[in-house]
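User: Could you walk me through two proteins back to back? I'd like the raw sequence and the structure tokens for each, with a short line separating them so I can tell where one ends and the next begins.

Assistant: Of course. Protein one, sequence then structure:
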Amino acid sequence: MAGERYARRRTWTWWAIIIRNPDHPAVPSQYDLDHAWPPVYIIVSVQKGSAADLRSWRLQADRSRFDEEEITKGT
């Protein structure tokens, strides 16, 4: 909540959230789908204490599912 208030005061817009999944794959859970906000989720799989995988997912407009997006290196 504090982060949301901080961003609002600066008129920043949230476009993604980064979460970690300890000892689970980098895929959204049913909980993520049920509570999704904002529409992009970047998920890091943490295996045995180290980052093992990083994937990006975009929520469909009808909130029915996430579709995986390609992560590319910016210039």
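----
Protein two, same layout:
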Amino acid sequence: MVNCERTILKSHKDLTAYQKAYQLCLEIYRVTKEFPRDELYGMISQMKRAAVSIPSNIAEGYNRKNRKEYVQFLRIALGSCAELETHVSLSIDLKFVSRAKGEELKGELSGVGQLLARLISSLEKL
């Protein structure tokens, strides 16, 4: 089960998916500081919530007692990636973020999503 992975990794912090998701979350916090103040309880709040959800669910799932629960938390993290990608697209269209920065964020999200999908696939094969 999950113990197979734990013999190689010391914690969820050793997972590349977690590390990249954590860095992406920090970047979302930086970027949203430049958004209009009237979006504080709208787009800013939603983006931060979705961004935090990704590494948080990776961490929580990793520390669950069984593989099935771990995979479920990874799927939630993957769903949060999709949600955040939508927010980033809206942010580009609303001109809250430059197209270049938005595309960079979407590229990072895509990378995290791919890592999560591969991790889910490998855990389902165990």
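The chain has a mean pLDDT of 93.

Let me know if you want the two compared in more detail.
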